[in-house]
Amino acid sequence: MVAGISFADELSFALSPAQNALAEQVTQKTMELNYVEAFNLARKLRLENDGVGCVFQNIIRVSMYDDKGDTTSLKVAAKNLETCKTEGLWDALRNFEIGYVLTETGHSVKGAMQTRSAASQFEDAKDYESKAFYAIYAYYVDNSFGWLPFKSDNREAYLKILDSGSLRSTRFWPLFLTPLIWMHYDRKDYKTGLSLAERGLKKAPNHPVMLQIKADMLYRLERYDEAAAIYEKSAADYLERTGKSIRYWCSILNLIRIYHDAGDNAKSAEQRKKLNDPDYQKMKKWMPGSLIDDLTDRKLI
Fold first, then answer.
1. What single string gives the DSSP state of each residue in 163-230?
2. Residue 16 belongs to a domain
3. Labelling 200: which of 5, 45, 179, 185 has CA 20 to 30 A away?
4. Residue 225, in any domain of the structure
5. Within 13 Å and on the Cβ side, how many CA atoms surround 264?
6. pTM of the predicted model, to two decimals?
7. pLDDT per residue over 41-95, tens digit each?
């Protein structure tokens, strides 16, 4: 708020130059895994703009969950996002994040409703960041009904909007790039997915989550040695950084199928034995459903 004028107006994500610089730094430090400094910057932002700073604090918490498997951070984010005092498009982003958190914590119906509420706020906005957030929702809606005759299908347009947003936005590029990669993955366009993951790694070198995403694309491209090398290192790094966390076990599960598909049944069995650990049973409910289903259907676990 400057001289009674709010930069965070209802029609855009506009912030004052100082606030915007802080927001960009929060994203940068988060992607550098420097969560302490990211929180410090978000606190400074909150002093300038309470609602926006609150949203960024909880984006950091969601990122910590995604990286470190810190489920406590996810639960705190769920609670705190409900009380962030946001307006306009920042309120839409708050709702968008709540939708993600609800889905991750097993409340998929509530999550979908919250995401739809956020999308309705983004739909009529003119700025490119709002269009990108709306594209995430709209793509999956079109994807769900794409088989219907005479149903308009704008998925290609939404992919382009997201791609542009991930290139242009300094504040939100990870929130745009990650779903964009998985959209191409679902389309079996693994080469584009790999290219996008490598783009992400140029912006955030050695980011552990983006490395796992890259490995997933390499696996689907049957570049098994490269995929296995990334996941072996990922398992070792996560074991050292976070212990036997979600990402550690994701590495083990992926190595089971990578080695199996590469024809190395001995190494696949070696990884499978690690699942006898009681720590895995505690974390099993947090494993990606599609990964578990694939391994179970093929009787690999």
1. HHHHHH-TTTHHHHHHHHHHHHHHTT-HHHHHHHHHHHHHHSTT-HHHHHHHHHHHHHTT-HHHHHHH
2. yes
3. 45
4. no
5. 14
6. 0.90
7. 999 999 999 999 999 999 999 999 999 999 999 999 999 999 999 999 999 999 9
Work out how many domains the chain is built from and give that number. Answer: 1
Contact (CB, 8 A) for 88 and 61: no
Residues 122, 54: Cα–Cα separation, whole Å:
19
CATH classification at residue 69: 1.25.40
| Residue 49 phi, psi dihedral angles, 5° rounding | -150, 95
Q: What is the pLDDT of residues 128-184, one digit of tens each?
A: 999 999 999 999 887 766 555 556 678 999 999 999 999 999 999 999 999 999 999
Higher pLDDT, 8 or 252: 252
State the residue range of the domain holding 51: 1-122
Would you state the structure tokens that stand for residue 241, as one six-digit string?
A: 């950084």
**Other C-beta atoms within 10 Å of 41: how many?**
25
Contacts of 283 (CB under 8 A, 6+ apart): 69, 244, 245, 246, 249
Please state, as a whole number, how many other Cβ atoms lie within 10 Å of the Cβ of residue 165.
24
> Does residue 35 belong to any structural domain of this protein?
yes
